């Protein structure tokens, strides 16, 4: 029995909720809801180059504005996940899921008709608010309709939906951008959201926590403000190519201070948005760290991969989507099967190996240049997708099964928060590193370009897209900038992937040290079962 004020063991509440008769159908509906959210982010990856182009082709977004288009969604998403999880536990997960999909669909419609990068950033934030209520509800409902022994397999299939979204998104986005205006990549969410809403109303059961906690508005405010200031400071430092600027230090430092205040508040309040007591469990803490660090590495890598494929190699958005297919296909293939590997080798061995392979994939990017055969890139993407598929499901199972069933919404919020925060920081930190290194590399070529004002030189040095746009405007005189721009980007990418790979290695170390291995009693049971079967076989032969 759990003591008051301490987290109840997960097993205490498992017997209260029998398996739902239509649980596999419900899982399919939850995957459709998840697809709506994941599809949009993966579509945006191939649309970034288009958005960076001047109107009417795009909206003339700078690299920092593109980073904010990604991170405004991610930060609002991460900041409201705790509240969304608690509201799901309190009001009912089905109601919260329906509300989140409606807000997400509205934000998609507004984003499709944005007139400027600023409007797109705001409407992406609206989409992030809706997604914050979708993600924890899907996983919480899953935990409540499946019995404990089926949860690892169900979570593996749920994670496979992420792979499906990553696979379908770039291809769908490429087709749309080849035939329609850029806003169609957001408008495509509408039919997916509509189908999901109808299916949820008809098929998904509702559930809630019989003893929900109170909301924590101060905690939510501190976490959102802290994350926004921290990421703003990091992105601004990359844009200015100087992380010692007072503005950068003030905003990033203020963000860190607010996040520390958030943690202190969560430790002392009687109704925390983030219950820090769960981090006392090694399985929980190590799994959360693995989720955050692997998404830090992955999202940062995806950000520069799209520019490498389109800007350096010259492929169209549709071709870029097809080239990303191995990354997603590997997740779809292996994520539902990860539970078998965990059952055989244990979560520690599987997650550690997965993170080491993620690091290896990152380091392999250092061998790419402007003429590398495409099959090399495809192998790297497939290895990274396979590795991700063996990190996400085991880590998610460790997080969710460390919490009582009735707190599934809060557990799902923690899982998704660290994933989104890791991804946001990955885009901000690695994107800023890429921007800084690129500016250093292209600076010499821009200095020698005749009749170029200082302001235009600074703007052109922010990203490869800005440099290539300047080259187009200059006509024949700008052709000399194309080769240096591509070379500078590749060099900057090599530096960035080394940092990304180091983060993945850190995740492997954390998991190897703190994530529990295969329980000894499981091995003993297997040996005992095997011995009984052998004795029975011998007795039968006699």
TrEMBL record:
Keywords: Antibiotic resistance, Cell membrane, Membrane, Transmembrane, Transmembrane helix, Transport. Pfam families: MFS_1 (PF07690). Residues 519-528 have a biased composition (Basic and acidic residues). The keyword Disulfide bond does not apply. Gene3D superfamilies: MFS general substrate transporter like domains, Multidrug resistance protein D. This is MFS transporter. It is a multi-pass membrane protein. It is found in: Cell membrane. The chain crosses the membrane at residues 24-48, 68-87, 96-115, 121-143, 155-175, 181-203, 215-235, 247-264, 284-309, 315-335, 347-368, 374-397, 496-515. Residues 26-519 form the Major facilitator superfamily (MFS) profile domain. Residues 519-542 are annotated as: Disordered. InterPro entries: EmrB-like (IPR004638), MFS (IPR011701), MFS_dom (IPR020846), MFS_trans_sf (IPR036259). It comes from Streptomyces spirodelae.
């Amino acid at each position: 029995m759990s003591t008051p004020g301490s987290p109840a063991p997960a097993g205490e509440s498992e017997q209260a909720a029998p398996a739902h008769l239509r649980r596999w159908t419900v899982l399919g509906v939850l995957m459709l809801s998840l697809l709506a959210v994941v599809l949009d982010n993966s579509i945006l990856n191939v649309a970034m180059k288009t958005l960076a182009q001047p109107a009417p082709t795009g909206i003339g977004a700078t690299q920092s504005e593109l980073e904010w288009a990604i991170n405004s969604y991610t930060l609002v998403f991460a900041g409201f996940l705790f509240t969304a999880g608690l509201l799901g536990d309190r009001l009912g997960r089905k109601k919260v899921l329906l509300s989140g999909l409606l807000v997400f669909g509205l934000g998609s419609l507004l984003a499709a008709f944005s007139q400027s990068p600023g409007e797109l950033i705001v409407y992406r934030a609206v989409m992030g608010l809706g997604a914050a209520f979708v993600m924890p509800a899907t996983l919480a409902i899953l935990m409540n309709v499946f019995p404990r022994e089926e949860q690892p397999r169900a979570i593996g299939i749920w994670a496979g939906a992420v792979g499906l979204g990553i696979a379908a998104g770039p291809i769908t986005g490429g087709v749309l951008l080849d035939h329609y205006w850029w806003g169609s990549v957001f408008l495509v969410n509408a039919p997916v959201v509509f189908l999901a809403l109808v299916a949820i109303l008809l098929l998904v059961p509702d559930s809630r926590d019989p003893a929900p906690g109170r909301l924590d508005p101060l905690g939510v405010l501190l976490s959102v403000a802290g994350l926004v200031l921290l990421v703003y400071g990091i992105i601004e430092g990359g844009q200015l190519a100087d992380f010692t600027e007072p503005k950068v230090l003030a905003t990033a430092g203020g963000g860190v201070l607010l996040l520390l205040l958030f943690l202190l508040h969560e430790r002392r309040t009687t109704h925390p948005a983030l219950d820090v007591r769960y981090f006392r469990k090694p399985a929980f803490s190590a799994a959360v760290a693995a989720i955050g660090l692997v998404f830090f590495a992955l999202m940062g890598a995806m950000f520069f991969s799209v520019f490498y494929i389109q800007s350096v190699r010259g492929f169209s958005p549709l071709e870029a989507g097809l080239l990303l297919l191995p990354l997603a296909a590997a997740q779809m293939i292996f994520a539902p099967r990860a539970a078998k590997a965990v059952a055989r080798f244990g979560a520690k061995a599987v997650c550690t190996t997965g993170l080491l392979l993620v690091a290896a994939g990152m380091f392999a990017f250092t061998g790419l240049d402007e003429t590398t055969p495409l099959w090399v890139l495809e192998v790297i993407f497939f290895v990274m997708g396979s590795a991700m598929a063996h990190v996400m499901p085991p880590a998610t199972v460790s997080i969710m099964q460390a919490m009582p069933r009735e707190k599934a919404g809060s557990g799902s919020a923690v899982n998704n928060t660290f994933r989104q925060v890791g991804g946001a920081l990955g885009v901000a930190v690695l994107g800023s590193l890429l921007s800084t290194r690129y500016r250093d590399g292209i600076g010499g070529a821009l200095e020698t370009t005749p009749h170029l004002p200082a302001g235009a030189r600074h703007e052109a040095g922010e990203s490869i897209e800005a440099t290539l746009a300047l080259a187009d405007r200059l006509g024949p005189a700008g052709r000399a900038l194309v080769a240096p721009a591509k070379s500078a980007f590749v060099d900057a990418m090599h530096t960035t992937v080394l940092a990304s790979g180091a983060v993945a290695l850190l995740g492997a170390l954390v998991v190897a040290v703190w994530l529990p291995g295969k329980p000894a009693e499981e091995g003993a049971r297997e040996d005992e079962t095997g011995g009984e079967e052998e004795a029975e076989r011998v007795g039968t032969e006699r």
